[in-house]
Write a structure and sequence with these properties.
51% helix; single chain; binds nicotinamide-adenine-dinucleotide; 9 strands
Length: 304
Amino acid sequence: MSTQDTRTVDRPVLAYIGLGLMGGPMSAHLVSRGWTVRGFDTVPARCDAAGTRGVQICANAREAAQGAGLVLLNLPTTDAVEEVMFGAQGLAQVMQPPQRVVDFSTIAVDRGRDFIARLRAQAGCGWVDAPVSGGPAAAGAGTLTVMAGAHEDDHAAVAVLMADVAARFTVLGPPGSGLVAKMLNQLMVGCLHATVAEFTVLAETAGIEADRVPQALAGGHADGVLFQQIYPRMRSRDFAPRGYVRQLLKDLDMVLAFAKDLQVPTPMTAQAQTLYRLLAHRGHSELDTSAVFKLYERDRDAPS
Ligand code: NAD
């Protein structure tokens, strides 16, 4: 077998469904790493953007999945994943082993587990739940943190892909385990965003050089990757979306439902959820998650 043949066996054709903030840069990165990527998104502008970066754009999800070894999903909600997989034109009706799904979306744990079982029963295909952390920049650089659930054979089948997607790829257990880890991740992310907003307004009001605070705290107990990223965004009021307010609110809703099922108290997460619901109510759903800072901004015209 030639080197080219070996590469083709190692690297199945990819279908990529959902070419948004995450799927756009990730699919383009995979093309740059030599993968063949057949993509689809319901928004034509997102298809056009991915097409200019080498993704072969298809008319629908079924066309994209035709002949693909791995079907990658990066969709906004649990309902969207259900529609793509089990709707009237769902992929479950046309997929066959050894095709597999790799779902990078953040979706509800119970429904995600149900989808995995349904695909196995209906089509005999494997499914790796592989939610991610790191945002669009890491998606475009192939340096995401991926937390996954998979059976052993599915784990082995996605290892080569993950080497190009992730700086850290961890399978925590059977299918569904990645979604559980992502709930934990989002509990921390949601609470930290709200905390950093509170922190930032206090730093700005305190009469010190607020821009030097991250440097001053670096390496100490309050330091962190998220803090270093979002504090400057809050300081500069740069709320262009890298991840949407509506998404973090969706995630916090799911974390709370998950914890409630397990009867685990989560008062901090509930507080963060309230703040994000207020932010969405004020019309800021499409802004960056760091826009939670807006709840703390003072109205310049208000009497002091
Ligand atoms: P996005 O809204 O930018 O992208 C989702 C894309 O899916 C959109 O382009 C949308 O048009 C497309 N889509 C919706 N329904 C579809 C369908 N039926 N068929 C084909 N395409 C469809 O969102 P995103 O930021 O890329 O996030 C995607 C997923 O990744 C979400 O589950 C999110 O929670 C998760 N996530 C996002 C980030 C982030 O920082 N943005 C980080 C980690 C995880």
